[in-house]
Amino acid sequence: MKELVYPRERTLGMITLIFGVIVWLVLIVGTFGSALVGLLIGFIFYLFAQSALIAHIKGNGIELSESQFPDIYSQFTSCCDRLKLAKRPQVYILNGNGGFNAFATKFLGSHFVVLLSDVVDAMAAHTDGVKFYIGHELGHIRMKHLSGILLRWPVLWLPLIGAAYSRARESTCDRHGLACCDSPDGAGKALAALSAGSVRWKDLDIPSYLRQNRYSSGFWMSFHELISGYPWIAKRVTRVVDPTAKEPRRNIFAYFMAFFLPYAGRLGSGFGLLVLVYIIGIMAAVAIPQFHNYQVKAHVSSAMYQSQQIREALADKYTATQNIPTLEQIGASESLSDGSTISLDPENMVMTIKIKEGELLVIPSIDDQGRILWRCQEGEGLSPAQLPPSCK
Predict the structure, then answer these.
(1) What residues have CB less than 8 Å from 63, skipping those under 6 apart?
(2) Please, which pLDDT band fits residue 216 given cuts at 50, 70 and 90?
(3) DSSP 147-216
(4) Which one of 18, 119, 299, 370 has the largest count of C-beta atoms within 10 Å of its C-beta?
(5) How many CB atoms lie within 10 A of CB 242?
(6) 3-state SS assignment for residue 351
(7) Regarding beta strands 90-94 and 110-116, do their DSSP bridges make them parallel or antiparallel, or are they unpaired?
(8) Strand 341-344 relative to strand 102-107: parallel, antiparallel, unpaired?
């Protein structure tokens, strides 16, 4: 069954999965786990939205069975067998209200295939028509497209990659639709009905239609395909009818322009600009505080390094006299070269280093061998996240 997978899907699927997991880990660690809260809120939103869709399908659709539209149900079971799906999803017909489509969905582990009534009616005169649409949607289920989206989600917005992965998935599912049909021409004509409509598809001349692919190498057609989750239908029909046919190459300059526009799925390129603004905002919200922390860490590390000789002198003086010395007694200045200032508590020899962001406390202790050790902790104005590793 490997031949049913469009070659680029495996590569793009692996790339998006690896980078998606990495981005999730960075988000979770970088936000100290708060990203998990956002993920939970997103899941709750998905749960309610998806439950509404499933309730609509079950309440308003017609579930196919051996006694309910047995002719279409027979095509469905035959396609499941051809694709070697051991567990069959539930299949429904839903009034399309003029919509010409089908879709697969998932809810809490259960899969559903929904055929819109307009597709079923239009393909009534086509022996392979409904089979192709059934096979295409079963392809999404067989390839687990509905399950792996969450891990990949953080990188699917990426220009070029997200859209390319989506197009590759559609081409894979078109191959599944072809596998359910009796002939490539029958599958091609069923798919071409998306262009010709519910009536005119019967009179469509496929060879003439496929010659329209020559237009797809133009700049604007190349650009809009690169930011779309679907290949042009003429290309999809070509891949079904003649998988070995050579496709026109896209305009190379279109790649450059598409590189700057995030993929926004079915919401279009205009929404892609909103996604870009949203992503930049999120990245800024995460990156700016982190960058500030790194700056503070650098200042703290510098202050610790510059105060090292003072700490050593204090330790030596205390070891020799058993009295807490003053900075003046060890010949130390209250100012460091970076502008930080030092003060010393005469009661416990705790050193307070004031940098521009806050105070760093350097606390002495005596080990079993009588040596003085120093540890640092945050004081007023600093947080534990802003301390360098040497303090932790």
Answers:
(1) 90, 91, 92
(2) very high
(3) TTHHHHHHHHTSTTHHHHHHHHHHHHHHHHHHHHSS-HHHHHHHHHHHHHHHHHGGG--HHHHHGGGGGG
(4) 119
(5) 13
(6) strand
(7) parallel
(8) unpaired
The pLDDT, as a whole number, for residue 392 is: 60
Identify the H or E element spanning 111: strand 110-116
Residue 385 DSSP SS3: helix
- The answer to whether the beta carbons of residues 234 and 216 sit under 8 Å apart is yes
Tokens of 279: 């992503």
d(C-alpha 47, C-alpha 228), whole Å: 27
* pLDDT, tens digit, 9 for 90 and up, residues 299-337: 878 878 887 888 888 888 878 888 888 778 788 788 887
Sign of CA dihedral 205, 210, 216, 218: negative
Q: What are phi and psi of 113, to 5 degrees?
A: -115, 130
Separation between Cα atoms, residue 255 and residue 147, nearest integer Å? 29
Name the nearest CA neighbour of 112 among 198, 51, 191: 51
Q: Of 229 and 328, which is predicted with more confidence?
A: 229
Measure the CA–CA gap between 173 and 9, rounded to whole angstroms. Answer: 11
What DSSP character marks residue 87? S
Question: 116 CB contacts (<8 Å, ≥6 apart)?
Answer: 93, 94, 95, 96, 99, 100, 101, 102
Q: Are 132 and 181 in contact (CB under 8 A)?
A: yes
Q: How many CB atoms lie within 10 A of CB 153?
A: 16
pLDDT at 375: 83
Task: For the full predicted model, state whether its pTM sits above 0.90.
Answer: no
Tokens 């290309």 belong to residue: 235
In this predicted structure, the answer to whether residue 192 has a pLDDT above a threshold of 70 is: yes
pLDDT of residue 49: 87
Tell me the β-bridge partners of 76. none
Query: CA–CA separation, 11 vs 320, rounded Å?
Result: 69
Structure-token pair, residue 63 = 């579930």
Q: How many residues does the chain have?
A: 392
